Amino acid sequence: MVLNRERADAIRATAHQVREDVVRMVHAAKCGHPGGPLGMADFMATLFIEHMQLTPENLHTPERDRFVLGNGHTCAGYYALLAAQGIIPREELMNFRKMGSPLQGHPHRNATLGIDFSTGSLGNSLSGASGMALGARLNGWDTRVYSASSDGESQEGQIWEAATSAAHYGLSNLTVIVDFNNIQIDGEMRQVMNVRDLREKYEAFGWHAVDVDGHDVVAVDAALCAAKDETERPSAIIAHTHLGKGVSFMEDQPGWHGVAPNDEELEQALAELEALQP
Ligand SMILES: Cc1ncc(C[n+]2csc(CCOP(=O)(O)OP(=O)(O)O)c2C)c(N)n1
């Protein structure tokens, strides 16, 4: 079923809020990674608002859906979405990366905040998510496990061990969304270490795999629906995005992978985002 206009608008409004939160959080921390989460905001909001069953009410229910953020450095956006879901108190967001806050610069497993897996060291995520998916199936649960990853994380060999194993066990309750923006910490992914066509790769590993425009919430929703319809294979959604989406001076600029905006840059970023408000 195609996402109706009202639901699509609600997702876009949440993605907008996430972008504002991200630039404010990274600015307040004076360090962090704004580019990735700005690029991921549309597909992450689609996942969290429309698909994943993760709410304050079911947080402690073992059968609930699970999420693993493989590109852990992009966690400002993840925390902002958990706040949008009412799981993290909004006021905590401004303590991002501060001493004593649970919202550190990479996600730390925290049952109270619904953070299911610690990440930051690239490459572990799909193994963890596969284990959760297999465990859920062995328990006879209806749980779906979602993992976000990136073109940079796809350079890690362990991702492909996990991809082999997930296909071997037919983990159709597992979906990975890959943030494919051709950018990583040291520059353009195609120059640093080209991972090539990830849809073809996942298909070759026995997965159901599709390419989508990661900023088109209707297309992302359709891909997530198709993943739910799969009964034999795990699913990979290769989301083509622009790092820094929504802030002109950050868009497609590797330099904004992991730098905080200064006061003037924050002001400009917020003004530009305001002008784009859906
Ligand atoms: C095992 C490991 N090696 C290296 C790093 C350092 N590192 C942090 S982010 C990053 C690039 C990741 O690429 P991507 O997720 O595509 O970056 P983005 O799109 O957010 O710029 C690297 C190599 C790490 N976190 N873990």
Explain the overall architecture.
With about 280 residues, the protein is an alpha/beta fold. It contains nine helices and seven strands. The strands form two sheets. The protein has a five-stranded parallel β-sheet with strand order 1-2-3-7-6, sandwiched between helices. A two-stranded antiparallel ribbon has the order 4-5. β6 (about 210-215), α8 and β7 form a beta-alpha-beta unit. α1 (about 5-30) packs across α3 and α1 (about 5-30) packs antiparallel against α9 (about 265-275). The mean pLDDT is about 95. Thiamine diphosphate binds near residues 73, 121 and 243.
What is the strand and helix layout of this fold?
Layout lengths: L4 H25 L5 H17 L14 E4 L5 H10 L40 H14 L6 E6 L6 H12 L5 E7 L2 E2 L2 E2 H5 L4 H7 L3 E6 L3 H13 L5 E6 L22 H13 L3
Parallel strand pairs: 1-2, 2-3, 3-7, 6-7
Antiparallel strand pairs: 4-5
Helix pairs in contact: 1-2, 1-3, 1-9, 2-3, 2-8, 4-5
The structure holds thiamine diphosphate (TPP).
